[in-house]
Design a protein that fits this description.
Elements: H1 2-34, E1 46-51, H2 57-72, E2 76-81, H3 86-98, E3 103-106, H4 115-123, E4 128-131, E5 157-160, H5 163-181, E6 188-194, H6 200-213, E7 222-223, E8 229-236, H7 241-254, E9 261-264, H8 267-279, E10 289-294, H9 297-305, E11 310-313, H10 319-330, E12 338-340, E13 345-347, H11 351-354
Helix pairs in contact: 2-10, 5-6, 7-8
Bound molecules: beta-D-fucofuranose.
Length: about 350
């Protein structure tokens, strides 16, 4: 009986210390989240957010991450969906300015056409955070903060991926794996499904892919410097499954037997293309090697099922970094001009092991 009592007492003491620690940790988080900025303010921080749409699994994951993080950080989020139209984004941002929100975050659907609106934000004293995609002329590094012609000075911070590097990674995966997957060939024909024309995700992936292959970045079709890889088809599928399928059908009609590799600028288009390939009586991931970008759930399912070969990860879970950066900016704390996302590459060798712990 005495022994039992002693054991119970020790157990109670351990539980008490554990509870106290986690309370302390919670308080620490709370403190970090409220960091002064709302002190003296009798309301929450108000963030206007212009999202571009819901074109892909990636976008949905990104939106969910932003909305959940705003709740976590106790930020009043005014969320606007532009349905892929830049006009709608400009309208939303103008409304946010009129509403005198504290901060504006936005994903530019295309790279151009942002100077006037961002300067309106600057004039209104509202800081802006560029999320996921970037704007033309920006290298996300501001060398002279007084230079108003430098696009990097039109926004306060950029949070997102290095799209050019993603294009490099696709080409590297292809060169390292395709020869073994297609041993009967020595020259490989590539079909490319581009993302939304003029978006930084499309221009970056397009250029990065060509750079690694030694193909002039400005040309759609061309042969790699070693003569082994030929881009024979390249068209946009606007980052959607439906258009990925449609364009792949057209590719297969015009070139029924010569496509060895498909590079899709995102997984949704790759998944649409897989359907087209199957409907054309070909075996995806064998007759045509399929590489996508994003590493969303649908791509993992396809890799595990053996119908897709690889996906280069692009991280959509940007919400927490957006909120943290917003609070810092409003507190007058220094922030990185470019917060780069951490990413990995997945293929049929590691997809099954990684799949259970994936969050999107
Ligand atoms: O890869 C694609 C999406 O901008 C990184 O947009 C994003 C891209 C993503 O629709 O799936």
């Amino acid at each position: 009986m005495k022994k039992l009592l002693a054991v119970l007492l020790v157990l109670a003491a351990v539980l008490f210390v554990f509870a106290a620690c986690s309370k302390k940790a919670e308080a620490g988080v709370e403190q970090a989240r409220s960091t002064d900025v709302t002190q003296g303010m009798d309301r929450k921080i108000v963030m206007g957010y212009s999202q571009i749409g819901a074109e892909s699994e990636w976008r949905t994951a990104c939106t969910n991450s932003v909305q959940a993080a705003a709740k976590e950080w106790n930020i009043d989020l005014r969320f606007s969906d532009a349905q892929q139209q830049q006009q709608n984004q400009l309208q939303a941002i103008r409304t946010f300015i009129q509403q005198k929100v504290d901060i504006i975050a936005f994903t530019p659907v295309v790279e151009t056409g942002w100077e006037a609106i961002l300067k309106e934000c600057l004039d209104a004293g509202i800081p802006t955070i560029c999320v996921d995609r970037s704007i033309e002329g920006s290298d996300r590094i501001s060398t002279n903060p007084n230079d108003t012609s430098d696009p990097d000075n039109w926004f306060t911070a950029f949070i997102g991926s290095d799209m050019e590097q993603e294009g490099n990674r696709v080409a590297k995966w292809m060169m390292a794996n395709v020869p073994a997957l297609k041993p009967d060939k020595t020259v490989y024909n590539i079909a490319e499904l581009q993302g939304t024309v003029g978006s930084s995700a499309m221009t970056g992936r397009f250029k990065g892919f060509r750079d690694t292959l030694g193909i002039p970045a400005a040309t759609a079709l061309g042969t790699s410097s070693d003569g082994k890889y030929k881009i024979i088809l390249s068209q946009t599928g606007d980052f959607t499954r439906a258009q990925g399928k449609q364009v792949m059908e057209a590719f297969l009609k015009s070139n029924p037997d010569d496509i060895d590799v498909l590079f899709a600028h995102n997984d949704d288009m790759a998944i649409g293309a897989i359907q087209a390939i199957q409907e054309a009586g070909k075996v995806p991931a064998k007759d045509i090697i399929i590489i996508g970008v994003d590493a969303v759930k649908g791509a993992f399912e396809a890799m595990v099922a053996g119908t897709m070969n690889a996906s280069i990860e692009c991280n959509p879970l940007l919400g927490p970094q957006v909120m943290e950066t917003a609070v810092k900016i409003l507190n007058g704390q220094p922030v990185e001009k470019w917060v780069v996302s951490n990413e990995s590459d997945y293929d049929q060798t590691n997809a099954a092991a990684a799949f259970p712990s994936r969050q999107y």
